[in-house]
Amino acid sequence: MQKIEFLTLTKDVLGTSGLFLIPIKDIVYFKGISEKRYVEFHTVTEVYYMMGTQVYWEAAIMNSNCNFLDLGRGVLINKDSIQVINRRTGDAYFEKEIDKKSKKSGPVFHRIKDFVEYMSNYNPNIQLI
């Protein structure tokens, strides 16, 4: 299995912005928008799009040796991008200094405890707040 290093994505759903080569390490999470049949790929500062289903992209990326974790609700998070986790809400942040504008993603409610424990073991340097 070969590890991918880049994805070719667009900055708008219709593709009118052209294609952008985005390093996979910069993608902090992605989620499927099922009713529209596209996937949103989030970096810390941008949102990119690719047509297709979340199921397709999850299979493709997970079978390309990337470190994403399924959080439920069609969201997969880049485990290597997490800097801070709120242990009460399970929200994962991708910057050490967080504010109201900081991008975050987290698991479904019933998975919070397992997620916090798993990520604490995966990366003991993650800051828990």
Architecture overview:
The protein has helices at 54-62, 112-122; strands at 6-9, 20-23, 29-33, 38-42, 47-51, 68-72, 75-78, 84-85, 92-93, 104-105, 127-128. It is globular and about 40 Å long. Helix content is 16%, strand content 31%. Strands 5-4-3-7-6 form a five-stranded antiparallel β-sheet, covered by helices on one side. It has two helices and eleven strands; from the N terminus they run βββββαβββββαβ. It is an alpha+beta fold. It has one domain (6-128): LytTr DNA-binding domain (OB fold (Dihydrolipoamide Acetyltransferase, E2P)).
Q: Which helices and strands, and how do they pair?
A:
Layout lengths: L5 E4 L10 E4 L5 E5 L4 E5 L4 E5 L2 H9 L5 E5 L2 E4 L5 E2 L6 E2 L10 E2 L6 H11 L4 E2 L1
Parallel strand pairs: 8-11
Antiparallel strand pairs: 1-2, 3-4, 3-7, 4-5, 6-7, 8-9, 9-10
Broad shape: globular
Q: Give me the secondary-structure category.
A: alpha+beta
**What is the H-and-E element order?**
EEEEEHEEEEEHE
Main β-sheet, in a few words? 5 strands, antiparallel
**Poorly predicted ranges:** none
CATH structural class:
Mainly Beta
> How are the strands of the largest sheet arranged?
5-4-3-7-6
CATH architecture identity: Beta Barrel
Helix content: 10-25%
Rg over CA atoms, rounded to whole Å, is 14 Å
CATH T-level fold name: OB fold (Dihydrolipoamide Acetyltransferase, E2P)
Protein name: LytTr DNA-binding domain-containing protein
Organism: Paenibacillus algorifonticola
InterPro entries: LytTR_DNA-bd_dom
Keywords: DNA-binding
